[in-house]
Amino acid sequence: MGLELRAIQSPIFSEPFDFTFHAQAFTLLVGSSGSGKSSLFQMIAQVSSLPYSGQVLIDGSEVSQLSIIARVQKVGILFQNPNHQFTMENLFEELIFTLENIGYHLQEIDSKIAEVVQQCRCEAILHRPIHHLSGGEKQKATLAVLFAMNPRVYLLDEPFASIDRKSRIEILEILKELALDGKIVILCDHDLSDYKAYIDHMVELRDGKLREVFQIPSYEMTQVASKEVASSPELFHMNRVTGELGNRPLFSIADFTFYQGISCILGDNGVGNQPSFGLFFNFKSIRGALLGRVRS
Predict the structure, then answer these.
(1) Is the pLDDT of residue 288 over 70?
(2) Cα dist. 118→47, 136, 139, 147 in Å?
């Protein structure tokens, strides 16, 4: 028993097909952009208006016939943009809201939250406002909410777009533990680094067909080439500049120059990449202070 797709036919597939994702397995779904991976996930989770015929079965139960509460306990989906999945001010309140809605009694909620926090290693972000979290921290928070619902099937749609490698490995380890505990974990991604040690199967969606593959398709290979950077005119210069967000110091820059062209700001999730960027360029959505001398 697992996740069975029977006689599935829809505009994203070239012909009707059957396919089974087995239980107790971590599967990586690959395919070129526009091949229909996100649409397939949304169809499985019943969160799309995409027309289809056939059956989506989880352990023999047809997903489309389940109540909403029963459905979210069968299949959970993590979207590319985590901002679409929060209702409350912080993760703690979001977990309470989620657990209440799926029928947990008040006396059970605290122990369940403690279990989820330990499993997802998210204690540091539990009470922080969602809008203060980095992209990677939001993805971890969304994953914690999925853990709270404890679905049979986990669908993760390119979950690592905003996540540093350290957090990526941490989440891959968590997902592998879920699969070993009997869950069905299916993740789609374009960056296929680091998966070899964690996945059990790799499935390709190509030309409207699903098939298991045993090596990375050629279109997913990334070529890295060195490039000499030509000198560019100065864009702006910072001297003895500090940045704060609320009462939290973000950075202290003794002397730095940005040059015209494309620059990349790197840092682990939660160190302040996004708010620092907002302070540099005076984005109104970032409430903070930039002190020092900036010359442009």
Answers:
(1) no
(2) 29, 18, 16, 11
